[in-house]
Write a structure and sequence with these properties.
Length: 252
């Protein structure tokens, strides 16, 4: 395997996955809405050892954008090996009684419809070439729930279900499907959740050591580097101080 397409590569976990695969000498295809971040990252990836790097703007909420991103990916890398469905977000901490419809729409359109749009374009190609690996970046929120996180947890439970369904639908094709489901990772995730409030976002990771994006990227690298007869279905990876989605041991 030597080529990988990563959604949400402009930041956090997606960016770290790109860096890990650059060090492995892969051909890398990046997507996210912030093109300037992708361009910046492309140069770094080349200097880290990537065989080649291509970056195209991607909005997973748009059918047209996904269509053109997937077409470009397969044009450049006709035998693409790995798709990482990483793009995702949460907005706010409202309860179900108080939540905002437009925020819920964005969360579901990104985290669930986005994954479906990408799979619809990439999976037929993987089936046709009799190889390929779909990796979902799920979450511990796909296994547990918490107050103020209902819609986000619903989307990550959905991602888990989509991975399980794909494994059934692709059985016998040699195409693999894995889900890497982290607990708390320090990225721009909380800043996005709190609408740009950096101080509030910092509090989320205070008093304990969260996962780094690299910790998650290394789990993805493990899942995708097993022999062809091995499918890693699911990896749940947590900070040692986090015992569940809502139980975190903080030192102060
Ligand atoms: N951080 C955590 O604690 C944590 C824990 C478990 C799971 N996760 C999951 O990990 C994944 C990555 O999140 P992260 O923690 O790395 O957060 P992040 O630093 O905010 O990165 C999110 C990435 O998703 C991209 N994205 C968001 N909306 C998009 C859209 N409509 N189209 C294309 N790309 C889009 C963003 O790029 P642009 O804004 O440039 O488009 C960015 O590159 C998400 O699926 C998240 O649910 C995170």
């Amino acid at each position: 395997m030597s080529s990988i397409a990563i959604t949400g590569a402009s930041s956090g976990i997606g960016k770290a996955i790109a860096e890990v695969y650059a060090q492995k000498g892969y051909d890398i295809f990046l997507g996210a809405r912030r093109e300037e971040k992708l361009q910046e990252l492309s140069g770094k990836l080349r200097s880290m050892g990537a065989k080649s790097v291509h970056a195209h703007r991607l909005d997973v909420m748009s059918d047209e954008s996904v269509e053109s991103w997937a077409t470009a990916a397969f044009k450049i890398f006709p035998k693409l090996d790995i798709l990482v469905n990483n793009a995702g977000l949460v907005l706010g901490t409202d309860t179900i009684e108080t939540g905002k419809i437009d925020e819920w729409s964005t969360i579901f359109d990104t985290n669930v419809m986005g994954v479906l749009r990408l799979c619809r374009k990439f999976v037929p190609k993987f089936r046709e070439q009799s190889h390929g690996h779909v990796v979902m970046i799920g979450s511990i929120s796909g296994h547990h729930v918490y107050e103020g996180g209902g819609p986000y947890c619903a989307t990550k439970h959905s991602v888990k279900v989509l991975a399980q369904t794909l494994r059934l639908e692709l059985n016998g094709t040699s195409v693999r499907v894995s889900s890497v489901d982290p607990g708390m990772v320090e990225t721009e995730f909380s800043e996005v959740r709190f609408h740009g409030d950096r101080d509030r976002a910092k509090q989320v990771y205070k008093g304990f050591t969260p996962l780094s994006p690299l910790d998650v990227a290394e789990a993805v690298a493990f899942a995708t580097s097993r022999p062809a007869h091995v499918n890693v279905d699911e990896i749940i990876i947590m900070p040692t101080d986090q015992a569940s989605v809502s139980k975190v041991h903080r030192k102060n």
